[in-house]
């Protein structure tokens, strides 16, 4: 189970960040050193201005020349330090967050299926994208503040106090007013921005669904209501956006006032002291300059704290995912056997406690034999396949592959024993050749061609202008459902695993292509132990054993012939399908 921290402790945040920053110590040290140099240069600049004014008033021309040189040196050193600081934080931030994203993606592929199924995919993706981006911007934009700001604040306070403690106290008089105004203004903005992002996220997800369901939207003429729904959410987001803009326009003069108030107070009181001869011009100018530097750093603190809080949340969510338990990696790879490749012994399973989806199921898969699972939708056919692949563990009974309990198998070695063609014919971005090669990454091109012939895919691939090099996947050539299915079958054929799992493998094919693929599969399944799920019963008539499932238990079992001789569920099911097909054919004849 993946935790979902709303907040994170300081320790967890620091250790979560440290883990990824540690390899880039050089970059961190460069950034920290550059921060210190930049702070020293800025502080020295103010001190030198005071020296310059004092010496100018005393007509010390030679010393002034030396100070000018020092000012130039400080400006150049400050520029250099800022260059290294920006470069180093940008570089190690990008690298550390890149590593973080890779680690998250790797972890995602290692999580148990039950965890992935129970999470919202949007939430998992958001940890890899939004949370990681928030950390990346914090490192590149805020890392400086961690060392630069404290140096400036502490040094400025000491320097201001040493210049004139009374004037320093006057500047502090503005602090409570500043804090009060900051709090007053930022509160509604915090609330409105969380409303704004919430509404925007809702609007985006509705828009995403509308794009994904474009065909249905058009076919049902739902454009208007769909568009109205999307528009409604965007209007809601926009209204919150307006409120933020209004609040920000109020905030701007207040922020300027926050910056200026201490300076204005000190200018008035400092001017009075200077006119009274109690304060030198150099001291007054240096004081006001240093005060401005101090204020710039302190007004950033609330923002920095808010930013650090949200980054701590992001680090927490990422750490939760990185620390979520992964699928077990123990167990052994056993030697394949010829007979009884798979034994399912009295297996009972439910996704939730006390709600069995599969009850007391037993069967055997042997090389060269095909077992078919038949049953109405939701009767548990795919669940049995998932149990064989050890995506879930049975609560009762046992499953043995090559004579060994799945619990004793290493999961990777176990899954190497299976070639799967699932209901969802998913093609990855890349060429057709790449997609077939996923079955066996060491295969040469001839083997890929061979596999495509077994799957009945060779001729349509040859007809494509770029043949096996055709790009497929989301942005590639659009293939038909049947073509995609044949590529999935070719991928499974290339794997040459001893056990074949076909989950509605020919469901997307028309009758003619289905017959072709069926013929190919018959040759292909001869060397395999095959478990097939089919809705179209015509495709499994030749199976060695048919298991008729009813609400998770085997209601009937036998060959097609045997089951047809009983007046049971299968016969009923078969005749209903045949009658439907017949009715469809008659309808076609009347057209
Ligand atoms: N990950 C899951 N978590 C909880 N329940 C699930 C999960 N997967 C499937 N189920 C439930 O288990 C039952 C059996 O589902 P399964 O997919 O095995 O049926 P099926 O016979 O393959 O159906 P179909 O022919 O429609 O594909 C259904 O009630 C389904 O809602």
Write the layout of secondary structure elements.
Blueprint: H1 10-21, H2 25-57, H3 61-110, H4 113-118, H5 121-163, H6 165-212, H7 214-219, H8 223-275, H9 281-299, H10 301-323, E1 342-349, E2 358-365, E3 370-375, H11 381-388, E4 396-401, E5 404-405, H12 411-415, E6 418-421, E7 430-431, H13 432-437, H14 445-454, H15 458-463, E8 471-472, H16 481-495, E9 499-503, H17 511-525, E10 529-533, E11 545-550, E12 553-558, H18 560-565, H19 569-590
Parallel strand pairs: 3-10, 3-11, 6-9, 9-10
Antiparallel strand pairs: 1-2, 1-4, 4-5, 7-8, 11-12
Helix pairs in contact: 1-10, 2-3, 2-5, 2-9, 3-5, 5-6, 5-9, 5-10, 6-8, 8-9, 14-16
The chain binds adenosine-5'-triphosphate.
Q: If helices are DSSP runs of H or I spanning 4 or more residues, what is the number of helices?
A: 19
The overall pLDDT average reads: 84
Could you name the CATH homologous superfamily of the largest domain?
ABC transporter type 1, transmembrane domain
Beta-strand residue fraction: 5-15%
CATH A-level architecture of the largest domain: Up-down Bundle
Low-confidence stretches: none
Q: For the largest beta sheet, what order do the strands appear in spatially?
A: 6-9-10-3-11-12
Question: What is the global morphology?
Answer: elongated
Can you list the ligands bound to this structure? adenosine-5'-triphosphate
CATH class of the largest domain: Mainly Alpha
Proportion of residues in helical segments: 55-70%
Distance between the termini: 56 Å
Q: How many domains, as an integer?
A: 4
Would you report the number of β strands? 12
Our Rg estimate from Cα atoms comes to 36 Å
The CATH topology of the largest domain is ABC transporter transmembrane region fold
Structural class: alpha/beta
Give the biggest sheet.
Answer: 6 strands, mixed
GO molecular function: ABC-type oligopeptide transporter activity; ATP binding; ATP hydrolysis activity
Pfam families: ABC_membrane, ABC_tran
Membrane topology: Multi-pass membrane protein
Protein name: ABC transporter permease
